[in-house]
Write a structure and sequence with these properties.
about 450 residues; 2 domains; four-stranded mixed β-sheet; 18 helices; about 15% strand; globular
Length: about 450
């Protein structure tokens, strides 16, 4: 057997059906004889130990290896074990809740030939198709935002949106599907096993940045990501985040506003202190004019630019008025996913209370999330001062000025939108809030 070019590393812990689907999709994607597959089993207690070796060999023959572990080594440890035993020149770290699509390998390898400072590359990760067959973005890169928060860039945008195909240099990409030269992975020491199933990819990419390397997502390479199916995925998030901040704060810079500006959007800080990509005034005016032509035109406008928040809320109201509650719920849910804040969560909660008051679980979850926006004047003042310092340090004077304006407008905020939110959470008969930023 010749030395494989790519070694695909798949850590697993239970969830055999996910692993089975991943292996079958990987085989169907036709990776070729120059690819080997290593499954590291973190002491699964389900059908994995019995079923995985047989299926792997049937799909990949001698190019498959099953590496059972006596204890759970978590995501970082499992990848490090596989990397040490891999025979390929390249490593593809791959979650078992993914479905590789045909042609994923060549664009990733080609990216390294085209970019000598490329540290690691990943495919475009997409959610499974919705009822209309539309794929939405799960991962197009990770960005660092205010409060040292990391998030997926443009998550839930449709795959055909123009920003999806734009090339961009990134600090961070997800470890759910990450290609890197094996020797580089080993030289950096692999993933930090102090993390427990979270943030190890952020810290690893920070070390790549320290070596003056950047990362990229290659849209031509596509993988479906079911996302969030791993057992215990969020159990150690607070500890992982704190560890990552301690180790990476001097290696990474806030880049979310810059990414938005590169794509023609304007970072907007709301009175609720949420940050979102806003549309330029000329684009918003064009969409408003298009929306006046009727429901079909409004629907088309929103499909073309889902980041137009007021358009989504307007469309939901018109869909409900026309007796299409299912469509209205989908529109409101998308608005909340694209920008989670009281501006989108309140309309969604009001709709559920009107149309499905028996859905106690959804109502409770929405109320809990909204309650997190209630804040004392003293806490908001402290938060705004911290944000202002953070924006100035990041070289964002316009956002620093916006925080100062919000500080000066505190009385109006607490007498207006904050009071309305508090009152709304005390009653089930909530009015549908107006569109646009509260306040």
């Amino acid at each position: 057997m010749s030395c494989p070019v790519i070694s695909v590393l798949i850590p697993v812990y239970n969830n055999w059906e996910l692993t089975r689907a991943c292996l079958e999709a990987l085989a169907a994607s036709d990776p070729g004889d120059d690819t080997e597959v290593l499954v590291v089993d973190n002491a699964s207690t389900d059908a994995t130990p019995q079923a995985c070796p047989a299926l792997g060999r049937s799909l990949f023959g001698e190019r498959f290896r099953y590496l059972p572990q006596p204890v759970n080594r978590n995501y970082a440890g499992a990848n490090n074990i596989a990397a040490a035993q891999a025979r390929g020149d390249w490593l593809l770290l791959l979650n078992n809740d993914t479905l590789p699509q045909p042609g994923w390998a060549a664009p990733l390898l080609r990216a390294f030939d085209e970019d000598p400072r490329l540290g690691a590359a990943g495919p475009l990760l997409l959610y499974p198709p919705d009822k209309d067959g539309l794929h939405r973005v799960q991962h197009l890169g990770v960005v660092l935002s205010q409060g040292s928060r990391v998030s997926h860039l443009y998550e839930y945008l449709p795959e055909r949106h123009p920003v999806v195909s734009r090339p961009r240099r990134l600090q961070i990409i997800t470890g759910a599907a990450l290609l890197i030269p094996r020797q580089r992975y080993l030289t950096l020491g692999g993933l930090d096993e102090g993390f427990i199933n979270g943030f190890e990819d952020v810290e690893f990419c920070a070390r790549l940045c320290r070596e003056d390397l950047h990362q990229r997502v290659i849209p031509e390479a596509r993988i479906i990501h079911l996302a969030g199916r791993s057992e215990g995925r969020r159990d150690s998030e607070a500890a992982n985040s704190a560890r990552c901040f301690r180790q990476c704060r001097h290696l990474l810079r806030m880049d979310e506003p810059a990414r938005w500006r590169d794509d023609g959007y304007q970072p907007e800080l709301s009175p609720w202190l949420t940050l979102a990509p806003g549309l330029p005034p000329t684009v918003r005016l064009r969409l408003l004019r298009q929306a006046r032509e009727g429901l079909a035109a409004l629907t088309e406008a929103v499909r073309g630019e889902p980041l137009w928040q007021e358009g989504l809320l307007l469309l939901a109201r018109q869909q409900e008025a026309q007796g299409r509650p299912g469509d209205a719920l989908e529109t409101l849910t998308l608005a909340a996913r694209l920008h989670s804040s009281p501006e989108t969560l309140l309309p969604l909660l009001a709709f559920v209370l009107r149309m499905a008051p028996e859905d106690a679980r959804t109502i409770a979850l929405l109320r809990e999330e909204l309650a997190g926006y209630l804040i004392t004047p003293e806490a908001r003042e402290a938060r705004l001062r911290a944000l202002q310092a953070e924006w100035l340090d990041a070289g964002e004077p316009a956002l620093a000025a916006r925080t100062e304006a919000l500080r000066q407008d505190a009385a109006a905020f607490f007498a207006g939108p904050h009071m309305r939110l508090a009152q709304a959470l005390q009653t089930d008969g909530m009015p549908l809030p107006s569109t646009g930023h509260a306040g």
